[in-house]
């Protein structure tokens, strides 16, 4: 437990140095974004791990259509291959992408295929939200897991029914967008905050020596590209590399499944007293087998035997957690309780409910 909080102290309790971040890492430029693509395709070359066509008739349909487009007439034929699978193919068309550029694609089985390992995606068109084809995908799939099975056992590691094809998509249509004609662009903060937005406004106006930026709300700063005296591309190149110190909120984030606790530097706790303990309920079954004597009449029966008990954990007693002025003092006070991380999560919840935790409390 002490080692756990020591790690937290090493991460967050260094010297209080103002860390400056590039504006490009804090905002998104409206209009400069990617577009989602999706397609429906067929994976071939699987080693008997494909769709069962009886349970996935759509696989047979797409395979028949594919073969007919290639000049193979399969009408009326009864085929049941096990090395094909129907998949959904997804990708993101990046901003300013040009025809001929390559993008990564993700492939996921939608039938009852057991694995896509070693499969090859056949040429698949990828459509945008407007129904137009913007890219095509094809290539060998790198599956995200493996599976093996025998007559009486099966082992699966990871997710073998999903994978990626690096550079497996090729852009065929560009998104019509003339960036050079923009007059005003909005900077959308990833974490809205009045102080951070004001600092971005000040840094931009100071860099251009004129009021070209204006804070609209905690999540938006507008930038007048016409008053900067340069092209929009050169203006954003200059803006995105400006350094500011973002304002950080005091937060405590806990993950109940893994017992992970992460505290921000500005977290504070008022002076409180904490007592922690718990009950352990133990139930054990010891079934007994009763058999009749040899050559006697009767039958074998199982008689239940149960042992139940409740144990009271000693707990920590009533301990004082002093209100610290920095994160180091806070960790020292919590560490003095000497409890496990999962118990510490419950203590932090209770302190927050008592109004003594001065931070945003987030539970995952």
TrEMBL record:
Q: Provide this UniProt record's keywords sorted from A to Z.
A: Bacterial flagellum, Cell projection, Cilium, Flagellum, Periplasm, Signal
Q: Name one GO cellular component term.
A: outer membrane-bounded periplasmic space
The terms under GO molecular function for this entry are: structural molecule activity
Which InterPro entries would you find in this protein's record? Flag_FlgI
| One GO process term, biological-process aspect | bacterial-type flagellum-dependent cell motility
Residues in the signal sequence: 1-18
Q: Where in the cell is it found?
A: Bacterial flagellum basal body
Query: Where would you say this protein principally sits, based on its record?
Result: other
Can you tell which superkingdom this protein's organism belongs to? Bacteria
Cited Pfam families: FlgI
Similarity comment = Belongs to the FlgI family.
Q: How does it assemble?
A: The basal body constitutes a major portion of the flagellar organelle and consists of four rings (L,P,S, and M) mounted on a central rod.
Role of this protein: Assembles around the rod to form the L-ring and probably protects the motor/basal body from shearing forces during rotation.
Protein name, per record? Flagellar P-ring protein
Q: Organism source for this protein?
A: Aliigemmobacter aestuarii
Q: What is the lineage of its organism?
A: Bacteria, Pseudomonadati, Pseudomonadota, Alphaproteobacteria, Rhodobacterales
